[in-house]
Design goal:
Elements (H helix, E strand, L loop, with lengths): L1 H20 L10 E13 L5 H4 L6 E11 L4 E15 L25 H4 L2 E16 L13 E13 L3 E3 L6 E3 L16 E14 L4 E12 L14 H6 L6 H7 L25 E13 L3 H6 L10
Antiparallel strand pairs: 1-2, 1-10, 2-3, 3-4, 4-5, 5-8, 6-7, 8-9, 9-10
């Protein structure tokens, strides 16, 4: 947090200094913007329902950087890199205080919730690369200095994320990569370590000074995988699990594919529901970002730095 505050103050100071040095810069537009930010992320899937369970164990932190190019008064394209954390835990769901059938008062009022018996959990730190199109609700015509103080915008795009859910081993306490264990005995070595995502979201851009905006963003990432949490279909038999291909060890797979006994419940029978394969997983990223308007010749200056002029003799 201290580093973020220092960087923010430095950028604001630098922007004001540059403004004081160039009167004519106010008349020229700037179509390139660099941004960075941080926030919280949350997961929605077989181990956690955001609407039903709230945030809880699904919350993690995130940080990201982006480079945006403006193509008109309302449309821009932005390339983002985000490092985010998510998680889920059956022990935090299903029978928490206030979540009993007679107390829910929500969309699952009266329904039996037995996820705590399954007793699965995961945590994950992933890297996402996305290409966004943003659409300003208020057009920005002319110089960037004439932009409104407050401008809502929409964003959508396509991206790719890494996917390596992990869980704590009950015997060693170490975090084990679940994807490498193939806990549902899938064909081959199991699911992929990457997944396509479709981000959809909204944001508000607040003008801090001539060169800097403060952005508040919220976006849901719809994924093309049901394995962000390592859970999707049915419990395999021990024989199916042993015969399946994997990168990790069968012993770890045997311990971590069914954790009901750890919670004091009977082990699952082959064919019992482990997850819901009809719905893919998704995740949310909420961020506060700082966006700096760059000179249009910054790429030339970056890749073709000017040579020093020779000294007078």
């Amino acid at each position: 947090m201290k580093k973020l505050i220092f960087t923010t103050v430095f950028l604001l100071f630098l922007a004001d200094f540059a403004d004081a040095q160039s009167f004519y810069s106010r008349r020229r537009d700037r179509s390139w913007m660099f941004s960075f930010g941080l926030g919280v992320s949350s997961y929605h899937g077989d181990l956690h329902d955001v609407v039903y369970d709230g945030l809880g164990s699904a919350v993690g932190s995130n940080l990201g950087i982006g480079l945006r190019k403006k193509f008109g008064s309302q449309i821009s394209m932005r390339l983002d890199l985000n490092w985010y954390g998510i998680g889920g835990d059956d022990a935090d769901n299903g029978r928490l205080a206030g979540k009993e059938p007679g107390q829910r008062g929500g969309p699952r009022e009266g329904q039996e919730d037995t996820r705590f018996i399954r007793n699965l959990s995961f945590k994950s730190r992933n890297l996402e690369a996305s290409l966004f199109f943003t659409f300003n609700l208020i057009p920005v015509n002319g110089s960037y200095t004439r932009r409104p103080v407050l401008n809502p915008y929409l964003l959508m795009g396509i991206g790719i994320t890494t996917n390596n859910p992990r869980a704590e081993h009950p015997d060693t306490g170490e975090m084990v990569n679940l994807r490498k264990l193939n806990t549902e005995a899938l064909d081959g070595l199991g699911y992929s370590s990457t997944a396509l995502v479709i981000p959809l979201g909204i944001g508000v851009r607040l003008k801090a000074n001539q060169y800097v905006d403060i952005l508040f963003e919220a976006a849901r990432r719809f994924t093309f995988t049901d394995y962000l949490d390592d859970v999707s279909t049915e419990f395999p038999s021990l024989q199916e699990l042993e015969d399946a291909g994997r990168i990790g060890t069968f012993e770890d797979a045997r311990i971590l594919f069914d954790r009901s006994a750890e919670a004091g419940y009977p082990t699952r029978v082959a064919g019992d529901d482990r997850g819901n394969p009809e719905k893919n997983d998704s995740y949310y990223i909420f961020q506060i970002r700082l966006e700096l308007y760059l000179p249009d010749n910054f790429l030339k200056q970056l890749f073709q730095p000017s040579r020093r002029k020779p000294k007078f003799r």
